[in-house]
Design brief:
With 259 residues, the chain is α+β, with helices and mostly antiparallel strands. The protein folds into two domains: 111 residues, Phosphorylase Kinase, domain 1; 128 residues, Orthogonal Bundle (Transferase(Phosphotransferase), domain 1), CATH 1.10.510. Helix content is 33%, strand content 20%. Strand 4 and strand 5 form a beta hairpin. The longest helix has 20 residues. The chain starts with 20 loop residues before the first helix and ends in a 15-residue tail after the last helix.
Length: 259
Amino acid sequence: MTHQHNAQIEPKFAFLIPSDKVSTDLMLTKTLMELRLDAEVSAHYEFQKVLGQGAFCMVFQALDKALKEIIAVKVYKRKMIDDEDFNDLNKEASLLESMDHQSIVKFKSLREIKDRIFLGMEQIKHGTLSDLIEAKRTKKESFSYYEASTIMKSILEAVDYLHKRDIVHRDLKPDNILMDDPCDVSKLKIADFGLSARKMLKGFDASNGRYGTAIFMGPECLLKSVYSKSVDVFACGIIMHMLLTGGKHPLHGVENESF
């Protein structure tokens, strides 16, 4: 087995890294080595390198030995997530497993090994829509109308697929849209279904529970009232505005943005 000794963070995942980068890199490298040396984990995966870190998990590139495929694996410490987070994780896996669409990230596997939970999914290697918007803004470039309409077509087709199955994503934003091909903006994948919901008989109730990012939420969610699939359409409208205005939010000033 060949191992990489330098667990360098992939540049495209830099937005996931806390400010204390040195200690974070050491922690990620230590975890990577632990996973490689664990015989029970190694029976299922060959961990190769660090991709980044989220709020509750670390993300690695690994070979899934059963699938014989390189995938992205979110690794969670079971003791670090409460029952609500655990339910969100299982819900995300269940929703992803039930879906098959070219613009939705594909589920690969979910395993609990010892004190860790491993959520495997299709690896998308070219960053996020947020990265692409920021790169354009840094270069003082704009999306052409063709590029913007192509991106929105792919997003809306995926959202339509979800809504026809009574699924509301609830956290659509550029950070949760992954770019699958740097040369083709139509090749994108919607990800992060941990906050998604299936419709109940009386509609979606926002009076309790957790939702996505405030500046992309529909007014119904902010008011904690009954809402509909239109909250995703609201988020799509904000994304479209950002594509056409160099990343500017239509309702929040640039100084208040935190994409």
